[in-house]
Design brief:
Layout: E1 3-7, H1 12-23, E2 27-32, H2 35-47, E3 51-56
Parallel strand pairs: 1-2, 2-3
Helix pairs in contact: 1-2
Length: 62
């Protein structure tokens, strides 16, 4: 199973990309500042039969 790391995954293009990759069978490592958005994304990916790891983080802190 391929793994994809997506930053900005809680909304917009990052959200759509994460969902599409999850639907295609990739394990998605979703990184975003907004926990609520990540949890919503995780629910949608799992409903589509995919899997995800959620990483709530602000990348400017690194």
């Amino acid at each position: 199973m391929p793994t994809a790391i997506v930053t900005g995954a809680s909304r917009g293009i990052g959200y759509a990309l994460s969902l599409a990759l999850g639907r295609e069978g990739a394990h998605v490592v979703a990184v975003a500042r907004t926990v609520g958005g990540l949890e919503e994304l995780d629910d949608e990916i799992r409903e589509a039969g995919g899997s995800a790891t959620l990483v709530p983080a602000d990348l400017k802190d690194f």
